[in-house]
What we know:
Layout: E1 25-29, E2 40-48, E3 54-63, E4 67-70, H1 72-80, H2 82-85, E5 88-91, H3 93-102, H4 111-114, E6 122-123, E7 143-152, H5 157-166, H6 174-182, E8 192-200, E9 203-212, E10 217-226, H7 231-247, E11 251-257
Amino acid sequence: MTIDSLPAGPASATVEVTGARPQLDYYLVGVNDSDTTVEGLLVEEFTRDRDFVTTGLDSAGWTPQAGWWSSASLSRDIRTNPEMLARVIPTSRRQAETVHRALGGGQLPDETLLRTHFLDHQPIASAPPLRLGPAQPPAGFHERRVYRVLFAKDLRPEQVAALRTAWRTPTVGTSASAASASGTSASGTSASVASGRLDGHGDQFSWDLRRVGHTLAWGLDVTALLATDATAALGSTLSALTDVLRQHGLIPVTTERFS
């Protein structure tokens, strides 16, 4: 099956924090710049602690020849091996169902059944939160939290532009815009290429997308100013933002809490 035969997936970059969505992440395996043939699927789910920090990753791969297998090594490789990274692209549950059926697998199992194939858990080390920024939240808020979601793979300029439009990133001066597009500020530090903000019930969420690790990865920095007991809203916002970037081709690696 070729990727060209798939229906177009969602392209919206808005942040939706209500409504059900698939809990698992789906990927097409076997595609690259010169070969659009889909060989199989990869299904993943991160495990997180009560603060939404990543603690591990469960996964399973599927091909018509081998069926389902637990694939912690494949999940590691697509985040650390450039050749493997180039052959995997994020997809939706709907497109994964289409691929599974077209490759002879029939109906894709529901997510409860898919989890039974997660047999090789990959722990991900975490550390106590680093303190970045002021220790005390601004007036009117009882807590300030800062998270960074790290991503592998890359974004094309038009994808960055789509995110800026959807997130209503403020327009800045010409020189700053050029620096932002390249991911580097005039001072040589990493600059935000797209940003957004969401207010709800007195809580404020803001985020900035920038290159990190000497441009080897992308980082989404999310600041939450909490005026209510907004634990559920915080988790939903982090999940929704992560999924937006998956829709644009990035592969999440881990979520860290900085404060």
